[in-house]
Amino acid sequence: MRLTILGGGGFRVPLVYGALLADRSEGRVTEVVLHDLDAGRLAAIGRVLSEQAAGVPDAPAVRSVTDLHEALRGADFVFSAIRVGGLEGRAADERVALAEGVLGQETVGAGGIAYGLRTVPVAVDIARRVARLAPDAWVINFTNPAGLVTEAMSRHLGERVIGICDSPVGLGRRIARVLGVDPKRAWIDYVGLNHLGWVRGLRVAGRDLLPRLLADPDLLGSFEEGRLFGVEWLQSLGAVPNEYLHYYYFNRETVRAYQQAEKTRGAFLRDQQARFYAEASRPDVSALDAWNRTRAEREVTYMAENRETAGAGEREADDLSGGYEKVALALMRAIARDERTTLILNVRNRTTLSELDADAVIEVPCMVDADGAHPVAADPLPGHAAGLVRAVKAVEREVLTAAETGSRAAAVKAFALHPLVDSVSVARRLMAGYLEVHPGLAYLRQA
Fold first, then answer.
1. Which has the closest alpha carbon to 299: 106, 11, 9?
2. CB of 80 within 8 A of CB of 141?
3. How does pLDDT run across 33-56, given as a tens digit for each residue?
4. CA–CA separation, 264 and 339 (whole Å)
5. Contact 244, 167 (CB under 8 A)
6. How far apart, in Å, do the first and last CA atoms of the chain sit?
7. What global pTM score does this model have?
8. Do the bridges between strand 361-369 and strand 372-375 make them parallel or antiparallel, or are there none, so unpaired?
9. Where are the alpha helices (DSSP H) in 56-103?
10. Which residue in 156, 235, 364, 415 has its CB near the most CB atoms, within 10 A?
11. Quick check: 312 pLDDT over 90?
12. Looking at residue 407, what DSSP letter applies?
């Protein structure tokens, strides 16, 4: 079975390959095709993967290509993990937004909109090529903003594109751990959009254990989300939010912390990864050792400003091991081998959430089999959550309209309608700022 990874020179590719190396079952991936526009990055990641595979019998063969058509032909699965504009683009997204006093995070607020405006046209082009060159392939989308990009690709690939994120899995795992239950035995009642969801229940053998957690201040404050959001706020919500909702519930504090930070997250990762790729290309250095050191630093500093603002302390050791590669592999196995499983995924709504239309991509538990991912029925969202989900989905739709039509007016509308952008005037200045730093946005004509 052949797996193609778009963005194959990306830093997190060794996580996926490591998971493939650990898979010893029948019908596993035998060939991995890495595609990237940067041959130097491909070579560096290729060295890491080669060291990972050393001594592993029947390790999947790895082939690196820079031609997209060559990469897609014959693929059974396509992992899309591209970053349009690179980390320099992410750093620019953050700078422009913070200069206007609004959030510039990669997937949330103004930064997420700017990233989406750059990424959606490229993702749509990929979707069209997959439909033509590998019509039987399944696309698993890692590319952020994951929900928005998955919805854009679904307009051309239908149900054959599925978005993944490890945040809900990590949240469910932490809640289960605190409650002393095996996460594999728990049903996580999670619902929302990507990076905008809530755990409303955790059931074991039909019994919901979340009320016990919410009623115990000591227990509730003992894990990351409890420390990040505060016990009283979680008890008021009656649910445990995805960590990214910290940007909404504590926006003013977070923006201030990001403005005062020595570097934005994008600038930190840009500089850190530049060092890694330079080091990994040296013949006298173990590329795998360099990658492991860099990854450890990356994980420890994740959402550091948010944790500092909340006084949440350091990340727990169990949360430093990643997880999105395990979700991707479980999804791929379930489809390829008809091994039925349940995963939290980004898929078309169908009739799952009454608040949204059938084609809206949402993030919910899904039953997965050889026919793909099928969202499980969910109770309606409470009013506060429904309002936020509708508002952010409306923003995503304006981004899709702008990308499809080239309308700058639609792009400005997307910025202005976002709950974390507080003025139409700010939205217009954001648009002007992003047009200045991102030549790729020139497709947005004045209309």
1. 11
2. yes
3. 999 999 999 999 999 999 999 999
4. 42
5. yes
6. 46
7. 0.94
8. antiparallel
9. 68-72, 86-99
10. 415
11. no
12. B
Contact 387, 192 (CB under 8 A): no
Closest CA to 400 of 361, 429, 436, 373: 361
Judged by DSSP in three states, 421 sits in coil
Query: DSSP string of 108-171?
Result: SHHHHHHHHHHHHHHHHHHHHHHHHH-TTPEEEE-PSSHHHHHHHHHHHHGGGEEE--SHHHHH
Q: Provide the pLDDT for residue 318.
A: 59
Per-residue pLDDT of 112-163, as tens digits, reads: 999 999 999 999 999 999 999 999 999 999 999 999 999 999 999 999 999 9
- Tokens 């979700």 locate to 327
Query: How many angstroms from the chain centroid is the CA of residue 423?
Result: 28
SS3 163: strand
What are the backbone dihedrals phi and psi of residue 334, each rounded to the nearest 5 degrees, phi first? -60, -40
Both tokens of residue 214?
A: 């919410």
Among all chains, which residue has been given the structure tokens 């990643």? 322
The phi-psi region of residue 253 (left if phi > 0; otherwise alpha if psi is between -120 and 50; otherwise beta) is alpha
Which pair of structure tokens corresponds to residue 31? Answer: 């060939």
SS3 content of the chain, % helix, strand, coil (to 5): 55, 15, 30
Structure-token match 């005037």, residue found:
425
pLDDT band at 27, cuts 50/70/90? confident
**With bands split at pLDDT 50, 70 and 90, how would you rate the model's confidence at 410?**
very high
Q: Is the C-alpha dihedral spanning 166, 169, 173, 175 positive or negative?
A: positive
What is the chain's length? 447
